[in-house]
TrEMBL record:
This is L-2-hydroxyglutarate dehydrogenase, mitochondrial. It comes from Cryptococcus amylolentus CBS 6273. The keyword Transit peptide does not apply. Pfam families: DAO (PF01266). Residues 23-435 form the FAD dependent oxidoreductase domain.
Amino acid sequence: MTVSRARLLRQLYPYKPPSTSVDHLVVGGGVVGLSVAAALVNQTGRDRTTFVVERRGQLGQETTARNSEVIHSGIYYPVGSLKSRLCIAGRDLLYNRCQRLQIGYKNTGKIVVATAKDQIPYLHRLQAHSAHSSFLSDPSDNTSSRIYAEFLSGDEARNLEPDLSSKVCAALHIPSTGIVDSQGLVDSLELEVEDPDYNPSPSGERRGEGVIVKGTRVVRIDREEQGEGWVVQMETGWEDLGEGEKGEVESVRAGVVINAAGLNSVSLCEGVVPEDEMVHLWPVKGNYMSYKGPGIGKVSRLIYPCPSANVDHLGTHLTLDLDGHVRFGPDVETIGTAADAKANPDFWQSHLAAIDTPEAISLFARSVSDYLSIDPSGLSPDYSGIRPNIAPPGAGFSDFLIRHGEDRKGFVELLGFNSPGLTSSLAVGAYVAKMIGRDVYRSKSE
């Protein structure tokens, strides 16, 4: 039987009464947690306090810092799913925020390319999905879709992207895709949480107080013994400790806890969520390769292949950064099981090194050779990221999970925030703040 890290921590850190109190405590200082905190500060009233607790010494250093920085259109996700709704809303909020607050971004657009005739039906299905009535501002006009997609012949695709190979026989152009400076977004949200003069409300309404605490991890969460809140025990200075050593430990009473801890979020649910309602974490690694060489000199958009039968993966695609550098990735590499993640939620850290074997480089080169002519010697390992998946490999589509159970009022779980988590983040913040206002504060006033 696997002994979980969460259970061991609860044994090592016995219950400790709180020494102070806050209204909201957000666990996790990635882009999703910061977006939730910013929304709570702005939307739940001037007399309420919001604390963000981030275990690393800097914000946004795990999932947020290790992704492709793509602003996704929302075209891939099932109608009505949280990923579809929050990605599209978040995309629009993100473009608006970048424009207003001078965060680096570029609306590049992207094309999805078919390199064989049997892939063309996939493009037609994707285009039909984009024209679903729920996406149209004008029901009689498919071009009014919030995820508008234009079908192109192979020649039309090469007119847009001259470096595409002659194998490309059709494509789908999706103009709403882009790229963003993820660290710039993190910095902007940090300012918004803590500085009342940054990004003030257009109405001039006063906001709540926000505080961010870094280098502090949550070691256990308990129901308040008397009352409706939660007692969150935290440890500061934990990263440099030896086996059995403890840092500075403090407990805080929080009226609402938002678990936005990403790769550590499932572990934090233990001791709070009943065993039969627990989900499992299946971390998946994605590797990226940078490229310098021939065959990409005129590329100006992101380029995605049609995915293979592997439904967990959209294919190894070309992305750009804001300096115009080209990367390929991510791939999909299974690095462990749910049991591994339960025993040690941080086991993924030993897998962070980007793959650099000749076989891996050759595989990347082959995966893009159908739609671009590149020189494999120009590929080099760049970085890798870990996705906090809550479905096992091969399970197919898995939606975001946002839970606020009636039997654990005030404890909000944000689980499975893989792609398009970055794009969706601002909409997630608004969604969670509205949910807390409805489920927590309105019910208290009735």
